[in-house]
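Annotated sample (chain length 322).
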Amino acid sequence: MSVSLRAHILLFLFSLTSRTGLSRYIEDIETSDGLFSLLTVDQKRETEDFIFRRPLRCLDMLATEGQFTFVASRPELACAVFIIGEPSEVISLELSSVSIDCSAGDFIKMFDGWVLKGEKFPSRQDHPLPLHQRYTDYCSSTAAGASSRSSQNVAMVFFRIQNPEAGFTLTVKKLHNPFPCNIMSQSPEGSFTMVMPHQRRNCSFSIIYPVEIRLTELSLGQAKSNELSPQRQVWSGCSGSGDYVELLGGNGVDTSKMFPVADLCFSLTGLAQMKIGCDNSVVRLVSSGNYINHVSFQYRLLEHHELPKTPENSLNNFCTVE
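Output written by the structure step:
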């Protein structure tokens, strides 16, 4: 991930956390070292045997494998680490050398996804596990709480450490995911194909930029050729079909709280495009489990002059982007 992209993601996270915090456990984020100080270290691996190591900060973002050690220099009451991988990766987290006082209120919690502004990505509707199983609490059971594995390309650690010199080491590894689902994009431009093979599951591809999204191919169930007519391009009301794609926009990360821009419940070959002038733009594939569904799309960052200022495609502009 380039410095500029990492900076954008951190600014997006900071814009959310600075308002209402990460969750009920986190009320504030310590940023005294400065947000951009997080970006000063080159984190690329040079050889297969090389293990990248660096100190971990109270507010941090990790996009590479390695070992990251946090040592408190003062009481740190509300810290968070956001971990992100490539779309086709899941994240393995392991704690070691832990020296915290759980009985005094210290904690280390790993979360399968991200928690921001009281919102969770992936949402409860899209994640395969119930919410309580997505948390791994080191203090509640040290033996079982020392490791965690994400279901998608993002994970999170938040912690409170009150005693100076206390801390822990976090080992981050990336594992291949053959069927990526619920992805947070690192880039404002690119292309992707989501495939759902006979599973009753919803998959979201989240882009934390205002972008233009172009659907290039969509295969849903047993669609017939006569369903490719432009007259069938319904932009709302597909939720009852069981298999459909929707485009969402909003300024948070929970897809269930985002505004539905458009939805399609028929197969197509060609281009259908939409500009979404929000902090977060999402392509969401909903599958009944009866078919092999897939959607291919391209996306690019909107220039400032392209941001919607008036209703477009018969939809109101619902995100204000300055």
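Annotation: The first helix runs from residue 3 to 20.
Annotation: Confidence is low (pLDDT under 50) at residues 17-47, 223-235, 312-316.
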